[in-house]
Amino acid sequence: MEHEFHDLEYLNYIGGKWVPAKSGEWMESIEPATGQVIGRVPKSGPEDVAAAVEAAKQAFDSWRLTPAPKRGEILFRVAQLLEERKEKLARFMAVEMGKVLPEARGDVQEAIDMAYYMAGEGRRLFGKTVHSELPNKSCWAERAPVGVVGVITPWNFPIAIPSWKILPALICGNTVVFKPASDTPMLGAEFVKIFEEAGLPPGVLNLVTGPGSSVGNAIVEHPDVKVISFTGSTESGRQVATIAAAQLKKVALEMGGKNAIIVMDDANQNLALEAVIWSAFGTTGQRCTACSRLILHRAIKDEFTERLVEATRALKLGHGLDPETDVGPVINAAALRKIHSYTAVAQQEGAAILVGGRIWENGGGFFYEPTLFDNVQPHFRVAQEEIFGPCLSIITADSLEEAIRINNSVAYGLSSSLFTQDVNRAFQAIRDFSTGLVYINHGTIGAETHLPFGGTNDTGNGTREAAWTALDTFSEWKAVYVDWSGRLQRAQIDTHEQ
Ligand code: UN1
Description:
Blueprint: E1 8-9, E2 12-14, E3 17-19, E4 26-31, E5 36-42, H1 46-64, H2 68-84, H3 86-96, H4 101-121, E6 128-131, E7 137-145, E8 148-152, H5 160-171, E9 175-179, H6 185-198, E10 205-207, H7 212-221, E11 225-231, H8 234-246, E12 250-254, E13 259-263, H9 269-281, E14 291-297, H10 301-313, H11 333-349, E15 352-355, E16 359-360, E17 367-368, E18 371-374, E19 391-397, H12 400-407, E20 415-419, H13 423-432, E21 437-440, H14 470-473, E22 475-483
Helix pairs in contact: 1-7, 2-4, 2-6, 3-4, 4-5, 9-10
């Protein structure tokens, strides 16, 4: 596939300047559809993180004192620039990350939506006013920025996920050190360029590219980074939380999922089929919200499975820029090996492979055939562990209650979906699904930016991204008491003696 992204070079962005790693080392960015190197970025280390944190610290006072509506105006400009550059960024994403062009556009759109939302927050950032228990005394609570925020993001949403973290952090008045994923660092740099062009002052947003083991750890360990916002694997998130706990940092984690769609006997099957294909194989299954378990009511199991097999077989693998492509590559060789290892696991556990289960050789790229595992029991590893690839496990249930029990029986808790035409069943599922996202007659993917995003159990640590809830991660509540009575009024003591 011909394209314009070759021999690229990006630098770190520290204190408003584009600079190489202090060590002079580089790391390569690879196009997953071909295995070819398309560019290089600094392979930074703790010394670069230290410089970025220092720049962010220096910039903090003037940024926190910039009125929030003015901060919002810069974010509004970011939204406009993202809109102008949507097509170029989407094409670049289809190359560096591999997702198909319409989905890459959606990724950028998610950042545009978030930028407009957070720009608007500049004129809200609502606090709360309450009445004092004493006369002639006013009380309220307002949001205060925390300081330097560390942002560590994955490769599967190279623009959208950084936007969920950086935009709310900035509108609250924090400054940021951002480490994009090692598989999509150039898109991270393109995103940062937009903030520079929008007029964000130097030092407010800093970019450091490099491996998680050095750059990511250095951010988490740095005593002057007060908040860590991380999206990635549960294993890495647990490490982040453990290190950060020693310094009592605020930590927001978005991690794995093992999301299910339940299709009941009364469901609109055409709709359900479309949603299952979209949720399981969209983004090549590489979403934390991807559907990787399909729980079918026994009465429709055979008929639905037959149609699903046919629809899965029809999916076309290819380059993300090719308009014929339905399913792009997976991110890298290690991911391909991990995904394929689950096919062996499924077979050993007694599942049947209905479609796929094979690496697709196309001379260098990392492709896995869309795969269906049938006869899966809820406790099988392929029904419990996150595969993060185009693999779907089919499970049978006899009732809604059983299906919900199976849905809730995993370590994760991000997204669940029910297909039914029965309003009573719908409300029962809304109440009983134990996940942070619940969908009725829609697949497990496609959360909107103005609702809380996140999950229960091992998916997170109780925080939520996006919407107004994102502000809680990036601000501290400051309770303010103004006593204008002219005398010493003692709370809890004088109250009943007035
Ligand atoms: C992710 O996979 O980490 O709801 C995020 C969705 C997207 C975001 C997915 N809006 O599928």
